[in-house]
Amino acid sequence: MKWIRKFVEFLRRDSPSLLVFGRLGASALALISAPIVARAIGPDGRGDTAAAIALFYIAPILLALGIPLEVRRLSATSDAQSALRSARLFCLLALPVSAAISVVLGHTLFTQFDESTRWVAMVGVALCPMMMSWSCDVSVLVAQGRYRGVMVMQIAQPGIYVLIVAALAIFQSASPATVLIASLCGTTTTFIVGMCLTKTSITGSYFPFLVLTKNAIRFAGSSIAEAASSRLDQVLVLPLIGSFQAGIYSVAVTVAAIPLSFGQALGASYFTPMARAEGADRRNLQTEAVRSAAALAILSCPVLAIAIYFGLPMLFGESFEDSVSIALISLVGTAGMMTAYVCSMALAAEGRGGIMSVAQVISLAVGVGLLFLLGPAFGAAGAAVASTISYFLLLFVLISALRVPLRRCIPMLGDFHNSIHKLLKGK
User: pTM of the prediction?
Assistant: First the structure.
């Protein structure tokens, strides 16, 4: 019973470590569902569903125009409720646009899907404002330091998804269409959970709508490009290298992305203090955050590399043995992306959305260009190399934008302890 008391005390602390717990829980659920889906529908089906689910992720960020980040900034410095009301109104107004996008995709990219999968994918894109809404809810919870709520929302979507796909596998009903339906069920559940946790009624004051959107646009380019950098490759590889290689690549990047949970939690723990600090204090916090992120990458990625080498073939089966080398290449990129994410949060806390957008667009352009160059020639390995190079380019541009000398970004011995302490205590 002692471990139960410790777990309850862990939850009561409401520290950023809960974000790590939530992200790792989500990653664990993804690892449980990934081999189930992969074995049930094979590499070809996995490639199709990965492309559609990537669009379920990209489309809401495309339409949100940076609103969730602006809501996070406002929630850290002023009234969260009025900002969230206006953000939800924005999500409602986005529904006709998302429906139009779904029709366009249904007659272009989704035409290579079977008929049922095509229709489910179209519905998923049309309903993307739900994800826009719960992204804003997460932003409010992070800014208010309500990490338990964030953890619940992190686990809700993959939790529902894994339960449904497991049932589909047991009853031998898994197909690309039913897998996509499982994903949409998870998104709908998370949307409802977010509404319940933030408890923001439609009555009350609204943050000036035009001011919210005008300020949010500063973050739009960064948010869109960041989403595209992390997921667009899974859409583009489908026509470039075929469903089989796309499936191999999807499994590899899913596994390699696990350490990103540490970077996201660390960025969240530093965000509010950086947003409230000024001058030299903010600069010192930004430098400390970059070093801590680099230290976390050095600590976590080699451990996962060992686990990938020995565990991935056992989890996913012989059909996905080629994913091992791809995952190891992608893991190098993950190390760069972890640090780049924290750098992005440092700039967002300072309200410098413009330079974030420039950095993300540069990285995206290079990554897509390399993907078209290397993908057809080298398949999934070429795609992994392209994304890895783009992530490190992004890191370099962001560090330059923060005006932190490269020598000060090299983690020292104390930074390894500080990074763990920051995750566990948040102070």
Answer: 0.66
Helix (H, G, I), strand (E, B) or coil at 364: helix
Reported as half-sphere exposure (CB side, CA atoms, 13 A), residue 179 has a value of 27
Residue 57 tokens read as: 């992720």
Residue 205 lies inside a defined structural domain of this protein: yes
Question: Which of 9-13, 108-112, 331-335, 413-417 has the largest mean confidence?
Answer: 331-335
d(C-alpha 41, C-alpha 51), whole Å: 14
Q: What is the pLDDT of residue 349?
A: 76
DSSP readout, 110-176?
Answer: GGGS-HHHHHHHHHHHHTTHHHHHHHHHHHHHHHTT-HHHHHHHHHHHHHHHHHHHHHHHHTT---H
Q: Rounded mean pLDDT of the chain?
A: 80
Compute the distance between CA of residue 151 and CA of residue 22 in angstroms, rounded to an integer: 4
Closest by Cα among 396, 416, 415 to 404: 396
> Is there a domain that residue 186 lies in?
yes
CA distance 412 to 416: 7
Give a yes or no: residue 106 inside a domain. yes
Measure the CA–CA gap between 422 and 264, rounded to whole angstroms.
Answer: 12
Residue 6 within a domain: no
Which residue shows structure tokens 């690892």?
31
Domain count, the chain: 1
What is the span of the domain harbouring residue 262? 11-425
CA distances to 173, 214, 412, 425 from 384, in Å: 32, 36, 30, 35
